[in-house]
Amino acid sequence: MPNSPSDTPRRVTVRRKGPLLVEGPVEVELEDGTVVTSDRFRVALCTCRRSRRYPWCDTSHRDRA
């Protein structure tokens, strides 16, 4: 996604015991360089790494909250 002065910033919402909520669409670059995309209007990114759908949150954090 190109950066230019006319681009509107993406909003990221941080939750203490939950995922990062990001206004989409988004591209996420993983540690191995793989890029995954979502065209949804809002995505939940896993921060606990328990998700079976990582980097997308599947609410696995609720089991040990």
TrEMBL record:
Record keywords: 2Fe-2S, Iron, Iron-sulfur, Metal-binding
Q: Where is the Iron-binding zinc finger CDGSH type domain?
A: 23-65
Q: Which InterPro entries match?
A: FeS-contain_CDGSH-typ, MitoNEET_CISD
The transmembrane segments are none
The record's annotation in SMART domains points to: ZnF_CDGSH
Q: What is this protein called?
A: CDGSH iron-sulfur domain-containing protein
Q: Please tell me the species this chain comes from.
A: Streptomyces atrovirens
Taxonomy-wise, where does this protein's organism fall, top ranks first?
Answer: Bacteria, Bacillati, Actinomycetota, Actinomycetes, Kitasatosporales
